[in-house]
Amino acid sequence: MEPLIITVAPVGAEISRQENPNLPITPREIADEAILCAEKGASIIHLHVRDEEGKATQAKAIFQETIALIKKNSNLIIQTSTGGAAWMTAEERLQPVELKPEMATLTTGTVNFGEEIFSNPMPVVEIFAKAMVAQGVKPEIEVFEVGMIYNALRLVQNKVLQLPLHFDFVMGVPGGIPGEVRHLLHLVESIPLGSTWSVAGIGRSELPLGTMAIIMGGHVRVGFEDNVYYTKGVLADSNSQLVERVARIAKELGRPVATPDQARKILGLASIT
Ligand code: KMH
Ligand code: ZN
After folding, report:
1. Is residue 144 part of a domain?
2. Residues 6+ apart with CB under 8 A from 155
3. Is residue 1 part of a domain?
4. Whose CA is nearest to atom 9 of ligand 1?
5. Residue 218 is part of a domain; what is its CATH number?
6. What is the three-class DSSP state of 42?
7. CA 20 to 30 Å from 217, out of 7, 116, 206, 236?
8. Which domain holds residue 264?
9. Residue 2 · residue 217 · CB < 8 Å
């Protein structure tokens, strides 16, 4: 099996310090956390940023500052969010792609998101996909529901995107596909042969689904964006604690953990250092 790519999603757009006081917020805090995660085995950072008040923002300048700090002390693959927060406009969400990160997320459909709607009509998805292709940014297809796989494949049919695609199954969002193993099996069976995939289990599904992915040859995303607990009722001290656990389980199961350059090779990224 190829080495395991661990993605860390340390911030997200929705989590606050009320839910976990260890949430990194400023560019410096996010970068410091990212570097610790890299030391523990992460090879990709799925990046959201916050403004001075701690509110989610897609402002290019804050992304730029955070990315520069991360790159100074790590070789992490930068994957900027284009999901942002559900209340943002599409124009706002797309801004970080102009910075030409190695990767960016591309959600290929609309989904209920707790009390909100995470809106991604296909014309908007197509604009996002074309912007990524134009900037040489590899999309990670964010799948909150099985239909989103087929929407992504329609973009391939229409020659907007090319195979092989890399999918991330975000499972357990209230309103999206539940974080259950039977659904993970169905998602994996639904993507074309030669695709790569990772799973981001929300809340208590993070660990079991991540473990399944290690066994099945997929990849794993962990971090406070998805889950702020280490075990039931016990908050995680840091994102790196969650990364370290996945790396440890992978090693126990005989799966090596990818370096960022190994991850670049697996994902077909151009920029092997
Ligand atoms: N915050 C969610 C509404 C992404 O980063 O691409 C969307 C999200 C997905 O987090
Ligand atoms: Zn995100």
Report:
1. yes
2. 108, 125, 126, 129, 161
3. no
4. 83
5. 3.20.20.70
6. strand
7. 236
8. 6-271
9. yes
140 lines ligand 1 (CB under 6 A): no
Which of 166, 167, 209 lies closest to 184, judged by CA?
A: 209
Instruction: Name residue, tokens 């260890």.
Output: 22
| 35-56 tens-digit pLDDT | 999 999 999 999 999 999 999 9
d(CA 123, CA 110): 12
With a 6 Å cutoff on the Cβ, whether 107 touches ligand 1 is: yes
Distance 273 CA to ligand 1 centre (A): 28
- C-alpha distances (whole Å) from 220 to each of 8, 21, 109, 120, 123 are 9, 24, 22, 24, 29
Split into its structural domains, the chain has a count of 1
Residue 160 lies in a domain: yes
Structural tokens at position 87: 């209340």
Phi/psi of residue 25, nearest 5 degrees: -130, -50
**Which helix or strand (DSSP H or E) is residue 262 part of?**
helix 260-267
Burial of 234 (0-12, 13-18, 19+ CB in 10 A): exposed
The string of pLDDT tens digits covering residues 51-93 is: 999 999 999 999 999 999 999 999 999 999 999 999 999 999 9
The residue count of the chain comes to: 273
Q: What are the angstrom distances between the C-alpha of 161 and each of 133, 135, 154, 189, 194?
A: 8, 13, 9, 20, 15
Distance 104 CA to ligand 1 centre (A): 11
* Whole-prediction pTM: 0.98
